[in-house]
Amino acid sequence: MRTRMVCLEDGITSCGFRKMAAYVAQLQPGTESCYISTERYRSVKTAVRGMGDKAVIGDEQVDEMAQGLADSDLIGFSSMTGYADLTRRVIKRVREINPSVYMIWGGIHPIIQPEDAILADVDAICTGEGEFAFEEFLAAFKEDRDYTNTKNFWFKPDGHGSSHGNGDQLIKNHFLALMSPSEMEQLPFPQYGADSEKIYLPGQGFVKMGVEDYLLNDGLGYTTLWSIGCPFHCSYCGNTKFIANDKKYKRIRHPSARYMVDQVKDARERFPHLSQVSFHDDSFMAIPYGQLEEFAELWHDELKLPFAVYGVIPNYVRQDKFELLSWAGMNRIRMGIQSGSKNMLDFYKRPTPPEKILNAGKVIASFAPKYHIPAAYDIIMDNPIETRDDVKSTLQLLYMMDRPYTLFIYSLKVIPNTGLATAMKERGIDLDDIDESYLAIPPRAANLMLYLIAMWRPPRWLWNRLMGHVRASSEPQELYPRLGLILRTMYLSKRVLAHLRVMDFSITPGKAGYYAWKVGLVGLWQKRFTRRPARPDRTKKQPEVKVGVQVISPDGMRDE
Question: Considering the domain boundaries, does residue 405 fall inside one?
Answer without folding.
Answer: yes
